[in-house]
Amino acid sequence: MATREQDIVAVIKEQIARFGAAVSVTNVGTVIEVGDGIARIHGLGQAAYNELLQFPHEITGLALNLEEDNVGAVILGEGSKIKEGDEVKATGRVIEVPVGAALIGRVVDPLGRPLDGKGPIKAEKTRPVERVAPDVTKRAPVNTPVMTGIKAIDSMIPIGRGQRELIIGDRFTGKSAIVLDSIIAQKGQNLICIYVAIGQKTSKVAQAIATLEKFGAMEYTIIVAADSSDPAPLQYIAPYAGCAMGEEFMELGKDALILYDDLYKHAWAYRQLSLLLRRPPGREAYPGDIFYLHSRLLERAAKLASEHGGGSLTALPIIETQLGDISAYIPTNVISITDGQIYLEPDLFNAGIRPAINVGLSVSRVGGSAQRRAMRQVAGRLRLELAQFRELEAFAKFGSEELDKATKDQLERGRRITEILKQPVNTPMSLGEQASILYAVTNGYLDDIQVEKVISWEGNFHRFIGTQHPEIVDKINKDNEIKPETEDLLKTAIAEFKKQAATA
After folding, report:
1. How many angstroms separate the CA atoms of 83 and 79, rounded?
2. Which residues contact residue 227 at a Cβ distance below 8 angstroms, ignoring those fewer than 6 apart?
3. Which residue spans within 321-362 are E strands per DSSP?
4. For 414-454, how does the pLDDT look when each residue is reduced to its tens digit (9 = 90+)?
5. Contact 379, 438 (CB under 8 A)
6. How far apart are CA 183 and CA 104, in angstroms?
7. Which residue stretches of the chain have pLDDT < 70?
């Protein structure tokens, strides 16, 4: 009897000890409707926008629609495992991704999970995928170039660190090739690259990875892949996740380059989600906030002032146009957000002019302030001469016999410039190599070379300079300009090469 009383006393003491202990409250809801990767949940009264939700079977979701009596969430995983009546818990965390140096050289999905089979990623820090862009007071002017290694871009459409330059064109006009060449050109440039593949074929992403590995570019590159086989929610998150990874380096005072391939497919994914969430459709069935979708992403690219670390994040978004229509809804939106565009024209591509850049429709709003002095010296009149050549060429088709000598000379010079600006894929050039050949063509040293022999002349010229006069390229790369003594060396080298080529 005494033992029983002792047990009762022990229970009462335990209850007294527990009295007043902290009570944990979990925001829990119930799935009332599920289908097409969307779940409607009743009871999550405290859920926040972009909050992570925990479904059964370790599946996560993202709260996007906060309505009066339910929450519309997109499912980030295998939605077929979720059924009506399932319990859903709010995690209290907005969607985050791992960031930091541990991601460099890896291929991850938009949630930061590895896709390359190289084991787990040991990142020490995470960042929310969405954040407010740095305000004007924290930014500095864009004045340092991102050298893409592509003559036509670095000479006429310079890109600066912290800029947003759109690459726009139809399918199969070389948009992704420009992006990959820009990454390859950053070897030794102290620039971390992030390539975000949105809605691309898995084979295309694998091909891009193989190309970057072949040229040793994966040593400073992160790839975020949301393939066409991935659900729309992952494609929607992908660019924001990549941007968060880039911002981490920017805020550490480093320079990063992020490439979105492409934002048209991103808009498609968001339109799909919005229609399934029953948001009111607007123009071309896109939701009303489609402009904000891309503006809040691209505004995060910036060059920070020195008191805020001095880092930068440069964005190169890609937009795929349909039948060359750059005045369509999404292209015009992104053109108005970015600091310029590189327009790739199918007619030029099919004519063998690659990269197929339309100089008349391409522009960089940062201009010469983000260009090395050496490039300004040789390319000052290049754009004007090329634009005038294209205009004259159109008129010359109607009667070349009646043209005066000056016009004929201008046409001949333009044809040689066009040939020089052609460049094979995966062959980025240093500043010195670009400046030396552009100096030669703009100063008339190629005027007596037959047009069909210009490309082979250029290849032989680079080999000659590289073996006989490597100090010229080294001096230009070191000084970032063509000094008078370097110009004298360059003139002598060109004359020597022409003499040698004439006797060969």
Report:
1. 9
2. 197, 199, 200, 201, 202, 205
3. 340-344
4. 999 999 999 999 999 999 999 999 999 999 899 999 999 99
5. yes
6. 13
7. 1-4, 7, 11, 18-26, 399-401, 504
Give the three-state DSSP class for 196. Answer: strand
Give the span between the Cα atoms of 181 and 212, in whole angstroms: 9
Note the Cα 248 to chain centre separation in Å.
16
Give me the phi and psi of 147, to 5 degrees please.
-80, 115
Active-site residue identified among 278, 365, 381, 463: 365
| 3-class SS letters over 62-90 | EEEEECCCCEEEEEECCHHHCCCCCEEEE
For 180-265, list the strands marked E by DSSP.
191-198, 221-226, 255-261
Residue 304 DSSP class: B
The size of the chain, in residues, is 504
- Catalytic annotation on 300? no
- What's the CA gap between 459 and 462, in Å, rounded? 5
Distance (Å, whole) CA 101 – CA 222: 10
- Cis ω before 280 (30° cut-off from 0): no
93-148 pLDDT, tens digit per residue, is: 999 999 999 999 999 999 999 999 999 999 989 999 999 999 999 999 999 999 99
Describe the crossing of helices 431-442 and 405-420 by its angle, rounded to 10 degrees.
Answer: 160
The single-letter code of the amino acid at 56 is P
